[in-house]
Design goal:
Number of helices: 14
Helix content: 25-40%
CATH architecture of the largest domain: 2-Layer Sandwich
CATH class of the largest domain: Alpha Beta
Shape: globular
Structural class: alpha/beta
Length: 433
């Protein structure tokens, strides 16, 4: 309930004045075991999709309440475990979703929107978050009547983590110049405002053609921050190519909720591509922008007249079949200064493990072509010094044959991930979310 109330201001800025927003929070609502930032992103994601479905005008209803999913419901939905959940719902008065499309809305990067229309994520983002959290998503829609998406997150009896009033996670800004390219006026204004608050100098463009004119003007730009999907003949990837030729030391950061294969192929980001998944909050934006700028600076300005020392960064192989979970995990590990390789299946992981040595293996337990546990056992048998982290939403039994392995409960945030891989001191209180 608190998360919904805290989102009110951001939602009104992102959705515009012509959408009425109603928030309904039931009394006595339970706590759920989920990262608050990821919950906010999921709700904002759904709200932006609803805005697009309503054409920028209509009513959006947000609900939060308690729910129990019984054995009969679980029997009809194989991925559901019967039990108590916190239910979050987003309802719009939009155009609705055709029945044949409903079957595909949770596919990664699937969208029915023509290029340049809308800026929200595909529903796969919410599905991935729910699955990682041990939860469930149910969508109800009727053409011409609107859509309701219900997100069920498992109840926890642990007390809510509290942040002392006036204390917030420190975010680092800068003084560089950033060109923000975004066709959605509300999203563009919000991103520019957040970047200005972080100290950056901000230039804005509504499409790739307008941005190209700024780039070709010769103005010094440190970072091109561009949406992937925009209207016009010039594609965002072509704009990025022009920018790199004009500013060899400049950095490029893409943002999108769906990519239509512009920078993602076979479920993977193209090499050397940086992506910030929509929707994003101030902290996520600040971290990613700073990471990309710092990496670009380090690459473009090696110490003159000195030999470059060998890399001391540790290497990690991430094995995760859920595309969005894998992208987020790779992103967080990169921020933690790891050299990261990724695989979507046990077969791909075995191929990579056969080609090179890694310091750490982080694998999902349930992979589409086998067990992550078996993969870890094989890897440790071949590479005795390999550390293993097992990521799962289920409680793990004792792992006698993997005595050095760590357990990373899903869902996890950057702090939990850092503790599991050994870069952050563990807390003694074990607070929940």
């Amino acid at each position: 309930g608190r998360v919904l109330r805290n989102l009110d201001d951001m939602l009104r800025r992102a959705l515009g004045e012509e959408i009425e927003i109603e928030t309904v929070v039931a009394g006595g609502i339970w706590n759920c075991l989920a990262d608050a930032t990821q919950v906010e992103n999921a709700i904002l994601n759904l709200a932006i999709n609803s805005r697009d479905a309503m054409g920028g005008r209509g009513k959006l209803t947000l609900e939060a309440g308690n729910a129990s999913l019984d054995d009969a419901y679980a029997a009809e939905h194989a991925e559901v475990t019967a039990g108590q959940y916190v239910m979050l719902a987003v309802t719009d008065t939009g155009s609705g979703i055709p029945a044949d499309v409903l079957e595909r809305v949770f596919d990664p990067f699937f969208t029915t929107k023509p290029e340049g229309e809308g800026s929200g994520l595909g529903l796969s983002g919410v599905y991935g978050f729910a699955k990682q959290s041990g939860g469930h998503v149910k969508i109800y829609s009727e053409e011409g009547q609107g859509t309701t998406v219900r997100l069920y997150l498992p109840r926890t009896r642990r007390p809510e983590d509290s942040v002392p009033e006036g204390v917030a996670e420190e975010v680092t800004g800068g003084v560089e110049t950033i060109l923000v390219v975004e066709d959605d006026e509300a999203v563009r204004a919000t991103a520019a405002e957040m970047l200005k608050e972080l100290g950056y100098r901000v230039l804005k463009a509504k499409d790739a053609d307008s941005a190209l004119a700024i780039v070709e003007s010769g103005m010094a730009i440190d970072l091109l921050f561009t949406d992937v999907v925009m209207p016009g003949k010039l594609r965002s990837t072509e704009l990025a190519d022009h920018f790199r030729r004009r500013s060899p030391g400049g950095a490029v950061l893409y943002t999108s909720g769906y990519t239509q294969n512009a920078i993602v192929h076979a479920g993977r980001l193209d090499d050397e591509v940086e992506l910030l998944i929509k929707p994003y909050g101030r902290e996520a934006l600040a971290r990613k922008v700073r990471q990309v700028l710092d990496a670009s600076s380090a690459t473009a300005q090696p110490p003159a007249g000195t030999e470059v020392e060998p890399r001391s960064r540790r290497s990690v192989l991430v094995v995760e079949d859920e595309v969005l979970i894998r992208i987020n995990t790779v992103d967080m590990l990169t921020e933690l200064n790891f050299l990261v390789a990724e695989a979507a299946t046990a077969r791909e992981a075995r191929t990579l493990l056969g080609r090179k040595s890694f310091d750490l293996l982080l694998t999902d337990v349930a992979l589409p072509d086998g067990s992550g546990l078996e993969l870890a056992r094989e890897a440790v048998a071949r590479h005795k010094e390999l550390r293993v982290v097992l990521a799962t939403g289920q409680v793990m039994e004792a792992m006698e044959d993997l005595p050095g392995a760590s357990w990373l409960p899903k869902p996890y945030d950057e702090r939990a991930l850092a503790v599991a891989v050994g870069t952050w001191p563990a807390r003694s209180d074990g607070g929940g979310s």
